[in-house]
Protein 1
Amino acid sequence: MKIKLINPNTTARMTDTMANCARAVAAVDTEIVAATSTMGPPSIESWYDESLALPGLLAEVAAGEREGVDGYVIACFGDPGLFAARELARGPVVGIAEAAMHAASVIAPSFSVVTTLARTAGMAWHLAERYGMKRFCRSVRATDIAVLDLDRPDGTARRLIVDECRRALEEDGADSIVLGCAGMADLGRAIEDAIGVPVIEGVSAAVKWAEVLAALGLATAKRGEYARPLAKRYDGPLADFSPRND
Amino acid sequence: MKIKLINPNTTARMTDTMANCARAVAAVDTEIVAATSTMGPPSIESWYDESLALPGLLAEVAAGEREGVDGYVIACFGDPGLFAARELARGPVVGIAEAAMHAASVIAPSFSVVTTLARTAGMAWHLAERYGMKRFCRSVRATDIAVLDLDRPDGTARRLIVDECRRALEEDGADSIVLGCAGMADLGRAIEDAIGVPVIEGVSAAVKWAEVLAALGLATAKRGEYARPLAKRYDGPLADFSPRND
Amino acid sequence: MKIKLINPNTTARMTDTMANCARAVAAVDTEIVAATSTMGPPSIESWYDESLALPGLLAEVAAGEREGVDGYVIACFGDPGLFAARELARGPVVGIAEAAMHAASVIAPSFSVVTTLARTAGMAWHLAERYGMKRFCRSVRATDIAVLDLDRPDGTARRLIVDECRRALEEDGADSIVLGCAGMADLGRAIEDAIGVPVIEGVSAAVKWAEVLAALGLATAKRGEYARPLAKRYDGPLADFSPRND
Amino acid sequence: MKIKLINPNTTARMTDTMANCARAVAAVDTEIVAATSTMGPPSIESWYDESLALPGLLAEVAAGEREGVDGYVIACFGDPGLFAARELARGPVVGIAEAAMHAASVIAPSFSVVTTLARTAGMAWHLAERYGMKRFCRSVRATDIAVLDLDRPDGTARRLIVDECRRALEEDGADSIVLGCAGMADLGRAIEDAIGVPVIEGVSAAVKWAEVLAALGLATAKRGEYARPLAKRYDGPLADFSPRND
Amino acid sequence: MKIKLINPNTTARMTDTMANCARAVAAVDTEIVAATSTMGPPSIESWYDESLALPGLLAEVAAGEREGVDGYVIACFGDPGLFAARELARGPVVGIAEAAMHAASVIAPSFSVVTTLARTAGMAWHLAERYGMKRFCRSVRATDIAVLDLDRPDGTARRLIVDECRRALEEDGADSIVLGCAGMADLGRAIEDAIGVPVIEGVSAAVKWAEVLAALGLATAKRGEYARPLAKRYDGPLADFSPRND
Amino acid sequence: MKIKLINPNTTARMTDTMANCARAVAAVDTEIVAATSTMGPPSIESWYDESLALPGLLAEVAAGEREGVDGYVIACFGDPGLFAARELARGPVVGIAEAAMHAASVIAPSFSVVTTLARTAGMAWHLAERYGMKRFCRSVRATDIAVLDLDRPDGTARRLIVDECRRALEEDGADSIVLGCAGMADLGRAIEDAIGVPVIEGVSAAVKWAEVLAALGLATAKRGEYARPLAKRYDGPLADFSPRND
């Protein structure tokens, strides 16, 4: 089985970290194809960044269809372009926020999201609502670490995240933690050890979710909203993106 | 990995069918332990049936803990005793309605549940709400087939279910179907072929969900609501169920 | 009129206290039949305890039907088995959380629930949602007193409850208090005197609710979800619980 | 105990019918004081009618406080002025829609409201939301009978209401019926006999609710929103309504 | 175009302040007709005050219809009588809370309401719910200034409001402020300057909203709930309010 | 005042129609700057189309900031890129669905959306939820007309839309109609004449909303979620979109 993990930002070292996490949990017969977007923002920290990440992301999905991919993971906690990607894909497409929140709601009565910049907290709440997970979400807490500072070798990020997780447990009564950024993919276990409650990291969860759905033969519903985009001719620099008939 | 599939009713032939479905999708290194409840109702078709199914179900979870089980599936669409089972279990516990609804919400914009008796439709709606899946659920439709008539060899059940699925697509605008009874576990593929939209069957979905969560090292949160029941001495015929200290 | 108050735990002294509260408010022509469950947990402090309390509770409802009972009160704040009991009963069945929340919503713009162990707070929120009362509920606050320690003669429980009620008024802006445990049945008036806002105690409220509904000739709806359980043969130690045709 | 039933419209024969219903269910030691508003609309069939019914209604509450009334019933299905009345009253104030919806939610999984004019259906939905009862309400159905035509001797009203109730059961799946107008107070039993599911009539329900709350010593919360109106001097023709210090 | 601004309390100096604000923002061809209610409370600080403000308010709407008014503003933050006014009016009727909340939801991800007395906070939440704006509302905060003390020359009110706004930003995470009283109409700019986030004042917003809707030819829908009240004869001192046929 | 109307698709004749509608309602001192996106889809009929419309749309907002624009209208009923645009803009940014739904909720108790392709109905529901307008929305109904067929001279589109509007009134009980596509901008009045209830067309509504907000000095909140995107260097063909410091 071929699962394509798409990093919708252009920072290849984040893709590498995530691909390692993905391969560590993938089934033996699952091939992880990891792709870094070739255009747009190097990190997604605003609605604007997210908007400009979409062409690069969707190009990777379109390529994936040609490559015979069985399922996709969108590896950014804002789950950008999730519905558009589903229109393109035959197989399942899973967002890392979506998979993490689903997993958290199964193993715990509630979770808090611990994320990077405060300005992205609203996005996390939007997703929680859209997935029906708002009722499980106690809070979305920001550490005010920039995405690209998460992997600084000095460990500051981990320390700040652990502190914020503890506040979520004490002040908001959360029973588990969802890590709110793809860039935290390799920190899950260490944080769980530090705080003593389940910590859900979305990249690995989404990879397994996509694998499971594909294994069960569950493809994206092509009746209605997720049908293939109608063929039409796009203009200007984005003409290459024009949807074609199958 | 050891996944225990518990049929909370006492009908062993339903357990056999479900165990077959489970083994067909389980990973090569997953052992499916299938158990039939040893006490209570032969089928669960009311709140009363569900209540009396709980002791037998929870006995199987308690036994599972002694047997080193890594994850559990509660194989009845009412997901009976889900929260109580989570208090007992170290590993994840997944309900088949829960897993089916999660899966449906990932691959389709909406689903309808097609179930057995009309009187159980309210239960399905309660679950949809509790899991945050109400927003994806277009309708819960009953076929008025008794649970134990589902596997009659004459094919009536399948025909009635297919008809009801079609009405869900046309009248309610659903994009996918969730089969609302564990007794339909072996019908999913045939119905999907007949109606042409994804059909999600909960037993196989829940088995994979439990497997994934266990594989990711995600255990049930033991802080708060899902903590082990306090040790105390129960009275009368249920004294054997008394929770003990670990 | 005969109202049966069922204590779903096996602690008879709690039943006595509650029966006294019930008789103090019952109409002159109302007979209060107080029953203590004969099997299961001595106090209900987890989902597991609640699950194992159901057989004993439902046996008392079934007995009540043979005894010509006109209405029932389930005297535990988790309102265990409420829907199953309604399937068995001809007359109305009222939960003490349900009655208390309804009463609070009529006399005050909002209430907070003050309960025993923190792990049961989630149950209270579930009930508030199920009854439509979430919008009135400011908070569910735990005192971390075990149920069976509530009536210790030293008055500690009352002091802790009063303190927690005051915090609910000040920090959460509640206008009234719902006592979140049947074991607090005799404390209502004293706490109200101490804190100066209405304190609603569910046992007496539920007894009056059941009395009123029965007096109005309002029986449980037997169309649909609350219809009598279908007759079927249960297996094993629970065979005596098999539903029979009327 | 003194319960004041206030008809907020000026049609005395409606008050008489409702007072009879009230007295038929009141406890032996309950005195029903029935009052007809002395100003405003003869029937309430719009937001405008309701607005102009408020002075007359509130005058009766203010008078009730001087008369030592223990609890109030606002006998119009729009529950006009409920919150303002609670500010004036020491004892509980119950609306007939509120009491009927609470009662229906206890004895049945769902209800439909059958009312008079279609233009008032929105009001019923507003109330259902405000009381948290929307989740139990399957539909609000209008018969397009004017309020003052309900008691025409030819029985047309009853026939139309029964027909609409049957549609609510069949088309909307309701399990019980709430009668949506105080003018239907004497029709409950006959309709219940005709349709075979519980029919809840709000006047008798509210009288019993008010009686119960008063009997339990539950007064209106005077902290916050339902505190006495601040004393101030009103102007013009409404000067007599000026709130005074106690 | 003629926009009628109705102050539903009887305090003419508040009307003057609001009329000035209205005229400062109205289009050149818009005539602002400002009216002070001729009966009822001098300020609206309870449900009771609001109820008694309705006759005076609705008399002004009825007069407006005779005067050829194109649109109305109800200039009290409780938006009293909004639906009744819409039944009377051909043109649009806008409440100041409604307009302010709509505006806030367009320019900011969230708002907090800063109002006068704590007892009116519940009203603001009711309105937020009714308008669908609850999801944007972080908090409703009271300053405990009486309405008629807002314009005291010593500046106390402004200081207290600014302090409360700051707490809303810091403690509740609001991104903008809605001023929760018509009596704050002239304070908006000064407070915005002090706190550095957008401050929305409802009187000017509602005047522009009414102007826009009228300019677009959007009249109140006369099908269904907002249809003209049925003609009927009112009794007693309110007989002059009897609705007549057009 | 300068209001920029951005057509996020590349079809200039749609921009012309919309600009005419905008100019017909704009204030005398308002300059309407109409822009057609220079890249991407010629019509937006899927999530994919919408995603690829974002770069062109956001380029126009960025240009608008350099041109001194006071407010923006996003002239496509999916309100694409609304939040990203708000991050870029100093002045208010209004979506046509947002403005139309707000307007409808003021003049009518409910509305139905009548749109083009069935596959876009889900988007309209998402917007209704996000704006808090779901409670007013009775239905979203599709005519299955492609966007670019709306202005065919044979009048087919108008006929189909009128038919669908009538079904919304009769079957769903709507009191007003919101036109669900920018391409219907010039049809509003004719449809209103045909069906006799208010018809709200979003382009003109949004132009006035933007004008009003700008006139009131209400700029986009720059604290939190709508703050300017952080400066960073984008890669590949989208490098020109890199956000810069102000």
Protein 2
Amino acid sequence: MTKLVKRRSVKAGLPPGTLVYIGDKEAEQAKISVIDYDENEFHERTLSQIRECLAFANKTAVTWVDVDLVHQVELIEKIGECYGFHPLILEDILNTDQRPKVEDFGEYLYVVLRMLACNGDNNGIFSEQISIILGSNYVISLQEREMGVFASLRERLRSGKGRMRKLGADYLAYALLDAVVDNYFVVLEKIGERVEKLEEQLVSSPTPDTLHEIHKLKRDMIIIRKSVWPLREVIAALERGDTSLISDSTRVYLRDVYDHTVHVIDTLETFRDMVSGMLDIYLSSVSHRLNEVMKVLTIIATIFIPLTFIVGVYGMNFKFMPELEWHWGYPALLLFMLGIVAGMMVYFRKKRWI
Amino acid sequence: MTKLVKRRSVKAGLPPGTLVYIGDKEAEQAKISVIDYDENEFHERTLSQIRECLAFANKTAVTWVDVDLVHQVELIEKIGECYGFHPLILEDILNTDQRPKVEDFGEYLYVVLRMLACNGDNNGIFSEQISIILGSNYVISLQEREMGVFASLRERLRSGKGRMRKLGADYLAYALLDAVVDNYFVVLEKIGERVEKLEEQLVSSPTPDTLHEIHKLKRDMIIIRKSVWPLREVIAALERGDTSLISDSTRVYLRDVYDHTVHVIDTLETFRDMVSGMLDIYLSSVSHRLNEVMKVLTIIATIFIPLTFIVGVYGMNFKFMPELEWHWGYPALLLFMLGIVAGMMVYFRKKRWI
Amino acid sequence: MTKLVKRRSVKAGLPPGTLVYIGDKEAEQAKISVIDYDENEFHERTLSQIRECLAFANKTAVTWVDVDLVHQVELIEKIGECYGFHPLILEDILNTDQRPKVEDFGEYLYVVLRMLACNGDNNGIFSEQISIILGSNYVISLQEREMGVFASLRERLRSGKGRMRKLGADYLAYALLDAVVDNYFVVLEKIGERVEKLEEQLVSSPTPDTLHEIHKLKRDMIIIRKSVWPLREVIAALERGDTSLISDSTRVYLRDVYDHTVHVIDTLETFRDMVSGMLDIYLSSVSHRLNEVMKVLTIIATIFIPLTFIVGVYGMNFKFMPELEWHWGYPALLLFMLGIVAGMMVYFRKKRWI
Amino acid sequence: MTKLVKRRSVKAGLPPGTLVYIGDKEAEQAKISVIDYDENEFHERTLSQIRECLAFANKTAVTWVDVDLVHQVELIEKIGECYGFHPLILEDILNTDQRPKVEDFGEYLYVVLRMLACNGDNNGIFSEQISIILGSNYVISLQEREMGVFASLRERLRSGKGRMRKLGADYLAYALLDAVVDNYFVVLEKIGERVEKLEEQLVSSPTPDTLHEIHKLKRDMIIIRKSVWPLREVIAALERGDTSLISDSTRVYLRDVYDHTVHVIDTLETFRDMVSGMLDIYLSSVSHRLNEVMKVLTIIATIFIPLTFIVGVYGMNFKFMPELEWHWGYPALLLFMLGIVAGMMVYFRKKRWI
Amino acid sequence: MTKLVKRRSVKAGLPPGTLVYIGDKEAEQAKISVIDYDENEFHERTLSQIRECLAFANKTAVTWVDVDLVHQVELIEKIGECYGFHPLILEDILNTDQRPKVEDFGEYLYVVLRMLACNGDNNGIFSEQISIILGSNYVISLQEREMGVFASLRERLRSGKGRMRKLGADYLAYALLDAVVDNYFVVLEKIGERVEKLEEQLVSSPTPDTLHEIHKLKRDMIIIRKSVWPLREVIAALERGDTSLISDSTRVYLRDVYDHTVHVIDTLETFRDMVSGMLDIYLSSVSHRLNEVMKVLTIIATIFIPLTFIVGVYGMNFKFMPELEWHWGYPALLLFMLGIVAGMMVYFRKKRWI
């Protein structure tokens, strides 16, 4: 199951700006891919050294540097040196449990997003941090792990079709944001399917597993919520902010992403409402079942306990029990007991138990 | 049952502005009906090509283009070309799960509404998207499905009575809004009837079906809520916005629609409160019933179990049991047991169980 | 029981401003009473035609027109004609399920209030609409039904004592508002008494009726809430609004009504909190009772079921059961069973069940 | 128990400004004590007539008039005449269920507070109204009942130590406020003790009394809440208000009282959270107990009911039952039943019931 | 367990500014340590008299005075005298249950924080007050108890590495804040571990202890909440405040601490949501268990009670019972009873009980 808190405590006591990666370290090498494009030209390379990026820095073309696996502290340090970023940004890139935020440093904007992904089937949702740094003619995106959300974007750039190659770095940053938010819809749909499956299960045959699925759904929605709510503010800040890095035509598109984010939040809240309602339904169907069980027990016990008592009476060994001598005693008693059963039945029907 | 989420994921990875219809595609042809009117003249036609609309564009008269079945991507594309709409608008028209919103593009306003409809009797509520584009002398309304809410409006235009023919396109747009909100009252009334029926059921004979009806009511109200809450903001934005497309006299009418929307929200919240209360009542009536059942069981068991023990005692086959030899043993025992029953009865009455 | 929604749907499809009364129509004639007063003079008449009101219109004295039973569409139409009111106002007067609001039309203010009344003893609360139109020297009040809240006000005007006769139409409008809000306290007191009665019942002997009374109380409070919350905004808008129809000295009094309204809301919320708490208490007292019942059952069953087994053993008809032949077998067994009972008792006491 | 609503309905229908005391009238005479002081002089008197206060009015010294038992309508009327207060203030003084508020009348400020007091041990909390009128060189405090909160203040004035004698009427008003808020901490501490006692009880032995104590605590906290939440706004209004009656140096002290009020609210909300949690704990401990009881019953019944059946079989009087004739039939049966018991035990242990 | 309220009542009635320590007094001597540093120089001393601090006051270097154990009233009084602090500050330092706040006195800022610490393993969390006074070239920190959070800071100052020695008193104050907030993450991680442990326990084997652990977790989170929520406002006020004591470069760092605080709040709220969900899970798993227990009881009772009745019938001693004489009576009856058991089994399977 997804960890709730990352081990941020390793940083307590260290001076601010100290670069420590708090996620799980992996053995693999970080991957740096650079795309440099304008309307006419397009270059794509995979680098081993971040320093080589600077070769693209002075051109008028837009440079997109995509770094996967940010756990390498030295790499992040070098990026900071090359581009002259504030040390707190570098710290935030490595502290991969940031909540989404945007910070305006004048010459560049620093945006933190959270990418959502499903852990296989029904196995919970986890979120990974994506940092985007937008400069005047470059965009640097840093992902905690390679997750392929930007693949279609890269394809669109390669093909050269559409608006994208004609527009600046701000449009590229928007496109990255859009790709992340579009991905939320994929996750939401999976959640929606689980909600609907749960609803059906609840009507047909609620089991304790239903309950645990409700709990898991709630947990997952809490994780999504933590990623999406602050994102709304981030995009609103980008759209309305007074930075000159984002052009007015791009702001129209940002408004569109904003609407999508609000849509995601809306849908999420709807799911939350529905899942809360389901818990009530589950609990009351459990207590309804208990009721049914108890009714069966009570009917059986109420009918047979008195009868058992009666036959017990005539099983006593008293010397002088006149009824035992009667010729029709036995059949008379059977009839009498039949009468009791009938009376009970009438009573239960009046009480609407049967 | 209504789907909770539309399949928006088909769009993930596509560039913004790509036109893909995300609803269920239907075989039928889209219907384009055009009404062109001013105080004196009135023309009504059904077109097969959107291009023919432009014939009406230059006149001073108000042109109302009503398009049903928006699922045809090419049609929407052509509308965009003819009138020069922003690609994001066209995308929103086809993404038929938008939340209500208004966007001001200077020369035209784009409004998204959600129309509510009942799925037969008690079979849940679904919502369809209606897009309205208001220009200086035209209104384009695009419905996901033909639902007849605008029929009476068309009739009023034809008859030529009332204010409508004398006023501009903004009044027409208001009238469309008003028709949609008036329709909410129809839906609310149905909900209200269901709430009252539930209330009666709850008092007379709560069953597990009551519970599922509560759940369905809650679900339906969540759907209505999702449509109505953002609508309030939309109408407020229209009323207070600084667009020149809406005249001051129309704004007075918009304030009236705003009041209606607030009224709808108010009533909805009242229903929500009541339905929440009903769940509590249901749950506690279920547990009250359990109590009743248990009391009957306990009374029966508490009376007869000890008696059965006693008769069991005298059913033992010990050689030496003096009581069995007594002449009055049997009737004495019967009396003794009668005494026990009486004592139990007193105890239960003291406990207020019977 | 009070209807939750009025049949507003009859209006769907009609053009805005169409006058249709949506409440229950009654056979009686509307009652128009006019009071015309200034510091020195006082005239009171009951009119049959609204047109006669205009005779008072040009004087400097304050004219108060009070119309009961607003269901007559023609009457409202004539009032509109005489005074030149906006058609939307006339529509709102007849749509008697408006939420409280104030609208400023420059020359006159339109205020909608809701009057609360109890339906006999414990039989629920209903609300009726009161419309007040305040002009420069006239006040028109329109009540859905005659309810007598303004009787004492009329008396004060007749007697000529106090500030009222010296002040303008705005003070009269304030006095009407104050009479309505004062009446809320009467309703709240009744609610308070019911809450206290419930509390006592809950401690002494909770029954399912307690539950239904809680439900009815909640329902009534929802109705009051719907009337009072928007009223607060209405009075705040009147107090702070920049209309010239209300003088500064009257605004001080409006602030006082505002305080009263806040007080009503406060008390209502307190009641809501308490009634919510009561439901919890009720539910847990029900489950406590269940517990008690189950304990009795368990004690009885746990003691006697094993004993019954034992006596069953010695009721068997095996040929060779040595114990049956023993002389002291029977009393020994009785002693043994007594020991079991004692052991059980010790166990139950340890468990704190008895 | 404290009444929830005062009988304000006696006022419905009376003109605004009518002076009627709505609390319980008491036989005693009102007490008027006057303290007149500046840095050098100090006079203290108990008056019988409010008119005598005016003797102090023209001096530069600060005059503090403290009136206990405000139920005497004539007294309040005379105060109003002497000082020329607005009639609505006099009405508010007598309507002793006001919510805390401040009103600025230019020459004087009118502040309403609520004093909290405990009704003996664990017997609920009630609140009394304190009105404070702050003029340029006088402070009038009016208490519903004599409660001694100002005793230490009076002592400090008499002793002449500290800042108080050197500062103006606004500092005196602050000191009164501070005394009231300090008293809240005393009440909160009692509440805190009750919360902690409840917590212990809940862990050791929850009884239905625990539930009623929770209910009483909640009720008391609702009453405190009603007094404290609006007080915060009152003090904020005093601190930030633009009245010239309060000097800047006193505002620093008001900020301190404000902090205390926020602290009171914070602590109260913490208690509320905890008490809500306790209800959950209580309810689940009740249902846990039910579980325990049911388990015992089930274990006993499940073991002995089948055994009783078996011994019943061999108690039948069929002529031809071969087992009865077997020599080892009886011990074999006993062994068989022992086996059943052992099997059951294993089953229960697997289910973790024993 | 941590006390919920400190004994603030000892202060009721005392004049504002009176210095009384409200925590538990301890025997130990207060510890005063002074660090005086600039880029080049570094002095560290432990003082016995606060007066000696003033020796450092006039230098341009930054002076950090750290006082542990603030319970000594005379010490605080002397600090007040030396630096000329407002008496309300001194009072707040000693009233160690303040909520976090910042007060700007022009020449110095007074900040109150709360430090969190765990009481051993799982034994609850308590919070201690830390006061920080920031002047132009000094920082005074006052801790209720020595807790070592500033140890690493002191170490960094000693080593002279990093930014810290080069920057002013405001950066030092920031560093203190940062150390406190970093420490929150340590506490949060412990909470997170407890939440995860609880979740596992809930799935595998919920016991009443689980419930008490949930209660304790909630309690601890309430305490953390009380410390962290107001801290957010404090840091926001510092960052945006218009004091000249904090330089712009430090404000960037404060924004970083602000982000951390929001992160802490976010995580805390996530935990709260999860723990609330757990309670529901616990309650419903308890009622599920009850259901299971009841089913077993019902199955056993429903099968054997009728059978016991039947064997009881043939245990009766009637003279004339023909069945008893039949040769195959006994085996026939056994078969008949087997049939009943089989029928029951089918019924239970249909009901999905087994």
